Structure formats: C-alpha cells, structure tokens
Amino acid sequence: MNTNQRLLSLDILRGITVAGMILVNNGWGESYEMLQHSKWNGMTPCDLVFPFFLFIVGISCYLSLAKSAFKPTPQVLRRILRRTVLLFAIGLFIHWFDNALWGDFGFAHLRIWAVLQRIALCYCAVSLFALFGNHRYTLPVAAVLLVVYSGILLLGNGYAEDASINILAQTDLRLFGYDHLYHKGPVDPEGLLGTIPSIAHVLIGFYCGQLIREKESIGQKVCALFVVGTVLVVGGWLLSYGLPLNKRVWSPSYVMVTCGLASLLQALLMYLIDLDGGKKLFTRHPSLFTPFRVFGVNALALYVSSELLAIVLGYFNISEIVYAGISAVVPLAKPASLVYALYFVLLNYAIGYVLYRKKIYIKL
C-alpha cells in the first residue's frame, strides 16, 4: 500500500464513530442503558464514541503532518492555529446558538468547555509535539501525562462525586465560574484538567498513526495495531483496580482501555478492507460501508450539523412531535427512544449523502 494513499478503513472507523456519537447524543425520552453514559465509575458502549474519535484525531494528525515531513513551516503552523481556533469557536457558537434561540444573546451563561473545544486543544498540543518533539518519546510523554494526572486524581479527590471537594470541579469553578460550566454532574466531563489525559489519548493515536505509516505491509500494520491494542486493554483493565474506569474524569485506565479497543477495531477494519488492496469484504459488499464513508469523509461537519439540527428541532417542538408519532406506533419507551435516535442519524446521513455524492468534503 502506498503511504500517500487514503486509508479507507480509517474513514470507515471515523464514520462509525461519528454516527455513534450522533446516535447516543440524540435519544428522546428513556434510552437503553447501553446508549447512556455511565453515571460515574464504569463504562458503557456509549462511553466509547468520543474517545474513539480522539484516537482517530491522533492517527490523522500523524498521517497529515507526515506529508510535510513534520517541518514547522509558517504555512503548517498557520493551518494548525486556524483549525484550533475554528474548532474552539464553533464549539462556543453551538452553545451560544442554543442560548440565543431562547433569548439569551449574551455570554454570561456560555459553556466554555465541550467536545469540539477538547478536540481543538488536543489537536493543537499533539500537532505542536509532532512538529517540535522527538517522536521516539511519544509513548513516554503520554505515560508521563497519565502519571501526573493520576497523582492529581489521587491527591485531589478526583474520584469524589462531590463538586465541593473534587479538584477537577473546583479548578473549573474557580477559573471560569459556575455559569460557564456543565451542570448535569459533579464535574464538567470536558473540563480543563481532563485535557491532560485527553492529550495523552491523542498521543497514543499519534503513535498508532506512526505504526500505520512506517510498517511496510498491511499485514504488518494490522499485527502492530493488534499488539498495541491488546497491551493497552489488558494494562488499562489491570490499572482500573486502582484507578477505576471513569469517562467523567477521563481516568488513565479509561484512556488505555478505550485507546486499546479503538486500536483493535482499526486493526480489524484494516484486515477486512485494506488488506490486499481492499479485495476482501469491501470489494465484495461495498454498500455495507457506504453509510460510514458518508459520515467519515465529513465527520466533524456532520457532528456540528447534528448539534445545530437537534437545537432547532427542539426549539420548534418538532422533536417532541416526531417522538409522539413514533410512540404511537412503538408504545414502549426505550425502543421508541432508539427509533427516534436512528431517525435523527438518518436525517444527518441525508445531509452527508448529498455532500458525498457531490464530492464536497468540509474540513474543519
């Protein structure tokens, strides 16, 4: 496989992840537990989608910057800065737009931290490491970040479900104020200190991107990712006995297990799709992968469209009307919620399909 060739399996993984993000974020009413985030310690399938995307950000970061030989030219630096600011600004705009529809046009209650803001900061940090750091130390740097963060959690009551004593909650509260934070839990799940393990998360993805590019054959790439994934899952599971899996605080064990699972899934997709030039499952049944390609090639754009569409449909009570119609046919609450979530995914798929057919790829 040519190193400059687009990795189809990565697009598919990205598409699966974004479709999953839209699905779990847009249930209506009472969702199945597997489609809800864990309340505190523990992990549900829903807790995999965002960390999978951060892992993909790391892989993409390596593959993209490798094209310029990791040279910190003014053009490359401007591109990184522009993308960082754009992602952060769009994240802020989504929450401002939600408030503005209800008459709050100011910034007094604007949530600062959210999904796109975390992606922006992690992308920026790892991109700068890629340009100015020694890639031999990618995993050691990630390990140091996780060790430091482990100390913060253990010494600062990071696992306490009480915002008054949890260092993560207190840091955000004192730096940014209550009105700018997430209010549905003891800590902001995308808060400032949680960015530390998230950068380590993206660095692990970056390391896997290095393996993908440097290994000669697809078979070698698959084996390397499988080994890394297995080590991370086992290591994270063992670590969870001292530092439990917890998405809300983005615990080190959570980083390792989710990165490991993402690496294993990427290895499987590479085996099915990219091995032998893509002459396996993809060429036999290409239609199976089309929906995920649609989501994968415009991943962030469709995520943003899903967030804005959900806000608009909610404001005009369209979501409630549609759900009432679904409930009339599907009387049980949880199946009805799932049907609504699938309907919402299809709405965004329709948007993505138009872009896909017209070969319009929106890069954020």
Question: Would you mind describing this structure in some detail?
Answer:
The chain is an all-alpha fold and 364 residues long. The protein folds into two domains: 1-36 and 285-364, no CATH class; 50-280, no CATH class. Helix content is 66%, strand content 0%. It is built from 14 helices and no strands. It has helices at residues 8-25, 49-66, 74-101, 115-132, 138-155, 167-176, 195-214, 218-239, 252-274, 281-284, 290-297, 299-315, 318-329, 333-357. Helix 1 crosses helix 9 (252-274). The model has no long low-confidence stretch (mean pLDDT 92).
Number of helices: 14
Helix content: 55-70%
Can you give the mean pLDDT? 92
* Assembly state of the chains shown: single chain
The H/E string reads: HHHHHHHHHHHHHH
The domain tally reads 2
Strand % is: under 5%
Q: Tell me the Rg in angstroms.
A: 20 Å
Number of strands: 0
Shape: globular
Distance between the termini: 27 Å
Kindly name the structural category: mainly alpha
Largest sheet: none
Q: Which spans of ≥5 residues are poorly predicted at pLDDT below 50?
A: none
List the keywords.
single chain; 364 residues; mainly alpha; 2 domains
Write the layout of secondary structure elements.
Layout (H helix, E strand, L loop, with lengths): L7 H18 L23 H18 L7 H28 L13 H18 L5 H18 L11 H10 L18 H20 L3 H22 L12 H23 L6 H4 L5 H8 L1 H17 L2 H12 L3 H25 L7
Provide a brief overview of the structure:
The chain is mainly alpha-helical and 364 residues long. The protein contains 14 helices and no strands. It has helices at residues 8-25, 49-66, 74-101, 115-132, 138-155, 167-176, 195-214, 218-239, 252-274, 281-284, 290-297, 299-315, 318-329, 333-357.
